[in-house]
Amino acid sequence: MSARQLRRRIADLAAFAFACAATIFGLVFLFWILWTTFRYGVEALKPSLVTQMTPPPGEDGGLLNAFYGSGVMVLLAVAIGTPIGIAAGTYLAEHGRFSRLAAIVRFVNDILLSAPSIVIGLFVYELVVRTMGHFSGIAGALALAMILLPIVTRTTDEALRLVPDTMREAGFALGLPRWKVTGQILYKAARAGMLTGILLGLARISGETAPLLFTALNNQFWSADLAQPLANVPVVIFQYAMSPYDQWHALAWAGALTLTAFVLALNVFVRILARKGNSK
Amino acid sequence: MSDSSHRRGAGGERLFGLTTAGAAWLVLLLLLGTAVSMAWGGRQAFSTFGFGFLTSREWNPVEGHFGALVPIYGTLVTSAIALIIAVPVSVGIALFLTEIAPRWARGPIGIAIELLAAIPSIIYGMWGLFVFAPWLGEHVQPWLIEHLGNTPILGPLFEGAPIGIGMLTAGIVLGIMIIPFVAAVARDVFAAVPPSLREAAVALGSTRWEILSRVTLPYTRSAIVGAVFLGLGRALGETMAVTFVLGNAHDLSISLLMPSNSIAATIANEFTEADTDLYRSSLIALAFLLFVVTFIVLSLAKLLLSRMDRSLGRTH
Lengths: 280, 316
Hints:
The structure holds 2 protein chains of 2 kinds. By secondary structure, chain A is mainly alpha-helical.
């Protein structure tokens, strides 16, 4: 083997080794983070987690009010963000497909998708919290809805554009108006893709912390009043993890495990769903 | 079709058209509204400190002096470290997933890497603070200080005590967080390289490294740069993970081992405690800066990716 061939062989092996090492690097951190969350989280799991409220410093308690607050805000955000996102996505893919507005909105939507969530939190603070005069669950839900909106818009747009034009033509040939073609034919054909977007968005906003810091804030006590500060899992985890108390740390890990398990399960479920939809 | 149902159809058509266009306008207005509201909220800070807001390193809530230099510096340094780690690793992962891995392993490994993006950032923060930072402080940082701390050029970057948290730790955690975003785009564009190009290279007897460096990377260059900008946009605005491991210190230090602050972490730590209008306005002014910079970076990413976008139909 000539020296030149040897050099080429070594460069090739180095690239091969680097690619393998890079993949292992990524996987190691995934499992390290998951293992950490699992180990500390399981230790802290107790039935009282779902029966008691968040405790004062140095005492045992649970996260019932936080689970409730998070659940309500996330569901409210989905209820607000999904219809608007589907409507906007429908405009991009159908009614305004080749318009200049659609091109601009598609561009802007992609930026909103990656925009810093803390800035979105501050925007809702300026808009809602200042107007109301205090932090509230409704402000938190609006901030989460604003994060969900671009996700649903994009996936709806993509799912609808994947529907073959022959379906639209078949609908029009029956004399159906455009809105009925979209509502009764295209939505059904694109259902799996749209549902994927909503569920992925739900997973994403379940773990969002930064936008809730200045909107829902937190509440140590049980409150179902959306006009008042509302307890929620991410902010409780943040406050408790940063505190010097062992009991609070344990609760933070228990919350972290529940949150991670929920988000990952949803992600895996969505991927299975998407694969089923594709193979059909 | 009777006349009345025909009219109802036309009304439904108009209503549907207006609703969807309205929703599209709302997306546009939300972005504009965010920019305007941050500029308006930060006006007091901008008018009080002027251009000095960007260049002053003083951040003193008690005396009411606010300068953004330390958070800006911390944001840029941590994002730079993140890119230095994430870009080569992401290209490596993309290469692995498109060229090396056996076909049956590509799906599961690809999904595992994507799951890195699904983990909430607060979990990264807790892991970083309680596990990763102490580990770095115990095993890696003493070595860096001992072996690099006295070298001529790199030395000042690695001076100080191995306390775990700091800019280096935050940068590494950020790097891990943006790997899935960069790797996903890189994988998609690598897979979109026309087979004829690859086959031609193979027919000429190219090795895998030669295919990557002389065919795949040159062909996908603009999209890869776009992916890097996408990762940068994410890194600049990431809040919770950085807040946990950066140390919340308003000090300007060259050493990467020292605690610092970032724009997002400063806002997260201090906004609810801001007790004067000027304090709050300064924090919103920081958010305005962050928003403008990420807007530019993400726009560049989008423009660079749009060419590949058309041939792929999708990149994320």
